[in-house]
Amino acid sequence: MRPLLPPRSSLGCLLTLFGSLSPSRNKLVTQAAPAAHFYLLRKSMHYQTEERGRLNSADYRIYFKNSEGKYISPFHDIPLVAETKVENDIPAKKAKHDGNEVLYNMVVEVPRWSNAKMEIATKEPLNPIKQDVKKGKVRYVANIFPHKGYIWNYGALPQTWEDPTHTDGETKCCGDNDPIDVCDIGSQVCLPGQVIQVKVLGILAMVDEGEMDWKVIAINVKDPDSAKLNNIDDVRKSRPGHLEATVDWFRKYKVPDGKPENQFGFNGQFKDKDFAVEIIKSTHEHWRALVQKQTNSEGIECKNISCCESPLKCTADEARDVVLLVRAYKSYTEELVKYCLNSYPVIILIINTSDTLALMCEICIVLYD
Q1: What class of enzyme is it (predicted)?
Q2: Chain-centre distance of CA 162, in angstroms?
């Protein structure tokens, strides 16, 4: 039975290309089978994650849901400041404290000791977590001797944004167009997409290829050492060498890829908790302007279901449709591959969905006489 054909207009450019090939020539065909769809649900505090695609592939995504099972953006819909939990496990609109300490939500992108470069997809609707891709290949960080992968749980603070139009007064560099990064120095190895509450301890001013790239140092509030670590000096005293290793890692981790060492503001010295909190507040205000469209979005997708003052707020049904659309594109590409394999002496090697969800086909035709 002939497979369901893709829409005629979408296939036209491929048919035009194929039509110029002579059927009498011998062709060498290499096939890459499309990955099967699957999803895996995982709960984390008030949030669930839903994995789609094949792990360690360009189509792998981690989508987020709230406690009601509605799809959300981890970038825009998870609050920056952690909220207290009431009896029915629904977040209350009140900041959570650890003593007198305000706690922040951290979205874990990369587990400690792992190498896959996972990140919030800021330019995709609903901002799922994906593995970074460069030149068609998924990216991994190299092991920086004597460490294995990332040396902390690495992620981002939601509802923050390092504005690329804002110039930092100390480094004279502009933001890197991403949520602010955070390193959880706790002992627990977290999972990608896990949302944890952290206590901020300090911050490092890294300059990455001329862009400001702040690194917040924090600890999971559930860590056994959380009670005795309250500022950056406590880390220096109780964990000798940890901060130095952090600077060394960030300085060198791109060198194996042929890039220069990263630089730092403040001579590579960590700033204290109060300074860190002010930077976080600043990036939160930049995010607020972003999601309210008061500033240039720089390509950032701001679709959300909870930001009342945002013109890009959508309904839960519209958010669900975003995820369904991704699945539809994947099904479409699979049918396209099947059709082409059955009808034409060529093979599509890579089929992806671009950041704008437009269908992208990279076609490789290997011919020999």
Answers
A1: hydrolase
A2: 15
The total of other beta-carbon atoms located within 10 Å of residue 345's CB is 17
Cα 280 to Cα 286: distance, rounded to the nearest angstrom: 10
Average pLDDT over every residue of 204-220 = 96
Q: Report pLDDT digits (tens) over 106-116.
A: 999 999 999 99
Q: Which helix (H) or strand (E) holds 174?
A: strand 174-175
| Segment 20-75, tens digit of pLDDT | 333 333 333 233 333 333 444 555 558 999 999 999 999 999 999 999 999 999 99
Nearest CA to 54 out of 352, 367, 357 is that of 352
Rounded to the nearest 5°, which phi and psi values hold at 343?
Answer: -115, -25
Q: What is the largest CA-CA distance in the chain?
A: 78
Pull the structure tokens for residue 102.
């305000």
* The domain made up of 48-80+101-325 is a member of CATH 3.40.50.1820: no
d(CA 269, CA 276): 13
Task: Give the DSSP per-residue string, 196-247.
Answer: EEEEEEEEEEEEETTEEEEEEEEEETTSTTGGG--SHHHHHHHSTTHHHHHH
CA atoms within 13 A on the CB side of 100: 1
Residue whose C-alpha is closest to residue 193's, from 280, 283, 118: 118
CA angle (104, 132, 113) in 5-degree steps? 60
| 0.85 exceeded by pTM | no
